[in-house]
Amino acid sequence: MTEAYMPDERHIMTLEQFIIDQQEREPGATGAFSRLLRDVSIAAKIVNRDIRRAGLVDIFGTTGEINVQGETQQKLDALAHAEFVRALKRGGECCLIGSEEHAEAIPLSTQTGADGKYIVLMDPLDGSSNIDVNVSVGTIFSIYYLPEEYGEPDLDAALQPGSEQIGAGYVVYGSSTMLVYTTGNGVNGFTLDPSVGEFLLSHPSITTPKQGQVYSINEGNTDSFEEGLQEYIRWVQHHDDESKRPYKTRYIGSFVSDFHRNLLKGGIYMYPATKNNKEGKLRLMYESNPLAMIVEQAGGRATDGHQRILDIVPDKLHQRTPLFIGSEDMVKKAESFLKKEPVA
Ligand code: AHM
Ligand code: MG
Question: pLDDT for 52-92, tens place per residue?
Fold first, then answer.
């Protein structure tokens, strides 16, 4: 067989093998964290299956409920939440779940008798308003230890700053399904091979360009942006050959998908404070922290315009924050405009 026909070694590394390899490099690792990641990936496969069948079975549309965020809950939001909770409950490694789709944190040990030591916070289905029109959506997750001072998984135990995350990741249900995660030692991406039902390593050691040409923001809100941000938007739109401006606008309205594209190609995603969302729209614990950890691990930057996202000390589970995330130089440039006028 000539070399051209030899399978690429990379493509036969499954997520499970990769996790075990990583675990073997950690002295004293018990395998509990590996099992937790396995449970997350199983739930992701189940949600992927459900999403791929949407349109054929009755899972499009809303449940008729308004969730804790004051937003209309989609049937698939509720389904994805239930699948992740089920997988984590069954796995036994997680003692507390915080979900964008649930008002309170959900303690698990009392229900299963298991002795899990991890807390998982998640947005089970991000960008869900795009589901009915077949646009990519995602899952975002964040993993913490249950701090030692909590014998029981007290709800307050979930209120840790993002810098305490021991792992974070996302799944994008796009033209293919990808799971990207970090445990604080670089970022790796896996693509689901539907024929074998496994996530296979497809994007090892992801790094994000320091500078990109894409900016992602809901410009319909421009009128209510602070003056410094409006000025930055005019700057990115201004023609300048040397800095390759104007930049391109790309805004799917599905954070995971916008983030994923910018991570790989370079770019900045912004959701600032607006008139309707004075604290910004995105949730610190479910969306901003996990993707901030990923972007920093890939060499990028994430702030609220003034402060590092991972340093924010939360005071509530469903807290929102303005977000500027992506290529380091682009985020710094945006901040330099914002500094002229602090967020009111
Ligand atoms: P969701 O978690 O309820 O789906 O809301 C978050 C979504 C993000 O995916 C997306 O970037 C943003 O909201 C879009 O908001 P807007 O329509 O205001 O631009
Ligand atoms: Mg979301």
Answer: 887 776 767 777 777 776 777 778 889 999 999 999 999 99
Specify whether 55 is located in the same domain as 193: yes
pTM: 0.92
**Per DSSP, what are the bridge partners of residue 308?**
303
Please report the atom of ligand 1 found closest to the CA of residue 254. Answer: 9
The Cα 335–Cα 332 span in angstroms is 5
Calculate how far, in angstroms, residue 198's C-alpha sits from the geometric centre of ligand 1.
29
Residues 183, 219: one domain?
A: no
Strand partners, 62: 74
Per-residue pLDDT reduced to its tens digit, 245-279: 999 999 999 999 999 999 999 999 999 999 888 99
Does residue 164 sit in the same domain as residue 268? no
Mean pLDDT computed over 279-301: 98
Query: What mean pLDDT comes out for the span 107-130?
Result: 82
Atom of ligand 1 at shortest range from CA of 138: 9
Query: What residues does 81 pair with on adjacent strands?
Result: none
pLDDT value at residue 125: 95
Same domain assignment for residues 112 and 141? yes
- 125 CA to middle of ligand 2, Å? 7
Phi, psi of 192 (to 5 degrees): -75, 125
Q: What is the CATH number of the domain that holds 312?
A: 3.40.190.80
Nearest CA to ligand 1 atom 16: 253
Ligand 1 site residues, Cβ closer than 6 angstroms? 71, 100, 123, 126-128, 218, 253-255, 258, 281
Residue that terminates a domain, selected from 182, 203, 224: 203
Nearest CA residue ID for atom 15, ligand 1:
253
Amino acid sitting at position 305? G
Residue 115 lies inside a defined structural domain of this protein: yes
Are 22 and 114 found together in one domain?
A: yes
Query: Which of 181, 203, 225 is the endpoint of a domain?
Result: 203
**Are the CB atoms for 246 and 236 separated by under 8 Å?**
yes
Closest protein CA for atom 11 of ligand 1? 255
Residues, CB within 5 angstroms of ligand 2 (ion): 123, 126
CATH of the domain at 138: 3.30.540.10
Give the distance, in angstroms, between the CA of residue 292 and the centroid of all CA atoms in the same chain.
8
Pair (192, 221) in one structural domain: no
Residues with Cβ within 8 Å of 64's Cβ and at least 6 positions away in sequence, in order, are: none
Its domain, for residue 220, covers: 214-338
